[in-house]
Design brief:
Blueprint lengths: L1 H8 L2 H8 L2 H12 L6 H18 L15 H27 L1 H22 L11 H28 L2 H6 L3 H13 L6 H30 L1
Helix pairs in contact: 1-5, 2-4, 2-5, 3-5, 4-10, 5-6, 6-7, 9-10
């Protein structure tokens, strides 16, 4: 709810680069509460990935992302949601040990439904369904099944097998995927700065993953 309402009150540019903070919050919380270790490569990868995400979202014009944030209620809500998601990831890591990815996702979806159902009932939300077009229904189903259902399930499944910081680093790919989807589906032009940002994103994710592999190899030798 924080992120969805925040998107109404701020710009996509601000939301895009603020979401890029999630891997950094996740890494800090993982170090504090899960005792994950961070070598120079992982730290560099997180910073490079964030720079690349910022470059992609702003199309190379970093001045568009006002750094004096949060400057609006929408920015503040998006910022709060990034911390919230990082905490969700940390809590999820421990929950997985008891429930597994499928049951953890099911319980999370059930809890979310229970929280939103009273608001839906008070506002008579069902009265709005009759006016939805076929394309809107398709979008709603995609958001529910693809983004929420499968998205959360895959996220928890990844957390079962990888460190929190490594999983969170893949969020840097989100603006890059958005850029490609906009080019293919909306025919939006892809400019050189965005491509450069995409390469930085890929480089940052590679550094995080390779840094984690090096630390594992060092532990195995000792």
């Amino acid at each position: 709810m924080l992120q969805a309402h925040g998107l109404v009150l701020t710009t996509a540019v601000h939301a895009g680069w603020l979401i890029g903070l999630i891997p950094i919050w996740s890494a800090l919380l993982a170090a504090a509460f899960l005792r994950e270790r961070f070598g120079a490569r992982k730290v560099a990868g997180l910073l490079v990935g964030f720079a690349g995400a910022l470059f992609v979202v702003t199309r190379g014009d970093v001045s568009r992302a006002t750094l004096a944030l949060p400057s609006t209620r929408g920015d503040f809500l998006i910022l709060a949601s990034t911390v919230n998601w990082a905490i969700y990831t940390i809590v999820g890591r421990r929950t997985l040990a008891r429930l597994g990815s499928a049951r953890a996702t099911a319980f999370a979806m059930l809890a979310g439904w229970g929280m939103l159902a009273p608001v839906f009932a008070v506002r008579s939300g069902w009265t709005e369904y009759g006016s939805l077009s076929a394309s809107t229904w398709a979008a709603v189903l995609f958001l529910g099944i693809g983004c929420s259902g499968l998205g959360y399930l895959f996220w928890y499944a990844a957390l079962e097998k990888l460190e929190t910081s490594r999983v969170a680093a893949f969020l840097y790919l989100e603006p890059l995927v958005t850029l490609v989807a906009a080019a293919v589906l909306l025919r939006e032009p892809v400019q050189a700065p965005a491509i450069a940002g995409g390469l930085l994103v890929l480089g940052g994710v590679f550094l995080v993953q390779s840094g984690a592999n090096r630390m594992k190899a060092a532990d195995a030798r000792t």
